[in-house]
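In this section we walk through a basic example: taking a raw amino acid sequence and producing a predicted 3D structure, encoded as discrete structure tokens. The instruction is simple. Fold the sequence below.
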Amino acid sequence: MTDFRVVLLGAGAVGILPAVKLLEHPEISLLAAADKERVDRCRRNGIFFNDRLLPLEFACPGEMTGLPPADLIIVATKTTGLPAALDNIIPVTGKNTIFLPLLNGISAADEIAARFPENITLKGFFLGHASVRENNRIYHDGVGKFYIGGEKTAVNTVENLFNSCGIEVEIPQDIDHAIWKKFILNVGINQTQALFKADYGMVQKSPELLDFCRNLMREAVFVAEAENISGTSGMIDEAIKVITSMPPDVKTSMLQDVLAGRATEVMAFAGVICEKAAKYGIPTPFNQQVLSGLV
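The resulting token sequence is shown next.
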């Protein structure tokens, strides 16, 4: 993996997890791309991971002109900021650049592929304990794994890269099934926590909140079935097992956003479910309730 060039778009709660490992590899160059305002702020304040200042270099588009193209661009922005953020990596996108989106939701890969149709865009996500983000400080306990799929040669390239850095990675047989499985979990727990300002422990102890969570996920499963996603029958039960096994004091990223007064990703969850459900005539009263409460 000699002189492999990686650009990170979104050095936040998810993007920083592979970045920490990539920074330790002597033959990988890692650059974090952002707009000028964010670059200036990160250079001024730094980014800390588990209270350690990371030696992460930042660049805005005007500073990347003339740089060699990236071999891999990891996209880990919030869904709300994706369209604008993609402007920041145009100077380092070459014909052989691979995109790996790690965003929540189910739409990021399609958005990136539409913007960069000549490039290979994989599908991916992180599943594990949520990071805690406090301004420029991110905390994570190391529990979790990355899942990727798509064009085989590109998948092998990224898998080898991650393995060489000690980043846990798995290649599901059906990446669309895997993405929807996580999506359905997020539709349930992220939105329930955000709407009721309840951490995992509060949800675990409340039959009413667990029922609300199930109802959100049930609507998402109906949409998944209409979209011909395979193996949906056990997704809700599996999601409930995850929810009831999580540490009680953990807050999802969506609840963290609500408590911090940041914009949430509700449109990537309830918004997408309600939009798709409308095409199939599927009622979505619970996801509509979330939309009304969080938009």
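Looking at the output, two observations stand out. The mean pLDDT is 96. The chain has two domains: 4-170, 175-294. In the next section we compare this with other chains.
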